[in-house]
Specification:
Order of helices and strands: EEEHEEEEHHHEHEHEEHEEEEEHEEEHEE
CATH topology of the largest domain: Rossmann fold
Radius of gyration: 22 Å
Shape: globular
CATH class of the largest domain: Alpha Beta
Number of helices: 9
Largest sheet: 6 strands, mixed
Distance between the termini: 46 Å
Helix content: 10-25%
């Protein structure tokens, strides 16, 4: 068993479980106050691991420690029940009570709290999840994305020490998926709790993850920064079934409806701007710009020399930070001001453009390649 010496690790798991004849989990995992991603093929054991941590099923041997509390220890014959573990859990199903409005759904887990404290906490998580306007509505009147956000608020209300998320966005459309992921990132920062998210989507893993655990055959084969693990030889092409999507915080700078354009300013202090398709929104409103990594071109000329010679509306100066080659392709991490972008290129472009860390490049982005989403900073 692993020795738990690093107090920074809030969740510590060392478990063995024969789930069925074809799957035996043998897990060593530690997670701090961060968003961890369980990534792997179907049948790798991702959901089973969440069920073991949550207490839905017992392990055969091992130990689970959360925020200094031992939840499971086979040597001590300790198996704390689910209701006492202090863990929030969400999955594809929001499981809201249809006869309760949003306010009462959120407050359901606060029984035993003082009335004024419960009201304050419901309001706090409603603010955090962006559902203030939904508090008097019933589940049947909500969209799929709204229901998931209410379910998330309900899971957060009792102040859990850990949030487990089992593919919570898989049934949502693109905009609702990444809006909920954006909320999860904001919640992790504000609540400072560890989050463990199951996904098989690299785009989702990169959007939300601080650390990625590659689970295969019941064992964690690799862990580390998401992009580093996703481009490792052990994952191969399995990790790249969809393009990476850059989610960039921005604010509406000005509107040009006659030209069908909205100009946004990227978050940070460098004043960089992007021209995107027109979206009705007030100046100053926070948004997220979404750009697929394979929709961005890299150029070596200066922005001044490129201006007026290409049709793309956006040319941003940047500096290469890291390059991750994989299977004839490469993911290039470029910093522009305070923002990091992931750009997908064919591997042959790396030597032909003489790309290396610290190389000066231009990001070339068509306006129509940019999509705007509501920001979790809004509401």
């Amino acid at each position: 068993m692993r020795e738990w010496e690093d107090i920074r690790e809030m969740l510590q798991v060392s478990l063995v479980k024969q789930v069925h004849s074809q799957l035996k989990l043998t897990i060593q995992l530690a997670l701090g106050s961060e968003c961890g991603v369980l990534f792997g093929r179907s049948g790798a054991g991702k959901t089973s691991l969440l069920h073991l941590i949550a207490g839905f099923m017992p392990a055969e041997s091992g130990r689970i420690v959360l925020a200094g509390r031992t939840l499971f220890d086979s040597d001590q014959r300790l198996n704390m029940p689910l209701r006492a573990r202090g863990i929030g859990y969400i999955d594809q199903r929001d499981s809201l009570f249809p006869h309760l409005d949003t306010r009462r759904n959120i407050g359901f887990g606060l029984q035993g709290w003082a009335a004024d404290q419960a009201r304050a906490r419901v309001q706090e998580v409603a603010d955090l999840c962006g559902i203030n306007r939904l508090l008097t509505r019933y589940p049947e009147t909500l969209s799929g994305g709204e229901r998931q956000r209410v379910g998330l608020a309900r899971a957060l209300a009792p102040r859990p020490a850990l949030l487990l998320c089992d593919e919570p966005v898989s049934a949502l459309d693109f905009a609702a998926r990444f809006e909920l992921l954006d909320r999860l990132r904001t919640i992790q920062r504000v609540e400072k709790l560890p989050i463990l998210l199951v996904t098989h989507s690299p785009a989702e893993a990169l959007a939300v993850g601080d650390r990625l655990f590659h689970l295969e055959g019941g064992t964690i084969r690799a862990e580390g920064p998401p992009l580093q693990v996703l481009t490792s030889a052990s994952l191969g092409r399995h990790a790249w079934r969809e393009p990476v999507r850059n989610l960039i915080p921005a604010f509406v700078e000005r509107q040009n409806p006659a030209d069908g354009e909205t100009v946004v300013r990227l978050a940070g202090d460098h004043g960089l701007q992007l021209t995107v398709p027109y979206q009705e929104a007030a100046v100053g409103v926070p948004l997220r710009v979404v750009v697929r990594s394979d929709e961005i071109l890299l150029g070596l000329e200066t922005a001044t020399s490129l201006a007026g010679r290409i049709s793309a509306r956006n040319i941003l100066p940047g500096r290469v930070e890291q390059i991750f080659p994989h299977d004839g392709e490469a993911e290039v991490v470029v910093r522009t001001g305070d923002v990091r972008w992931t750009v997908s290129v064919v591997a042959a472009s790396i030597p032909s453009l003489h790309l290396n860390p610290e190389a000066e490049v231009q990001l070339i982005i068509k306006a129509r390649s940019c999509q705007l989403l509501e920001s979790a900073l809004d509401d």
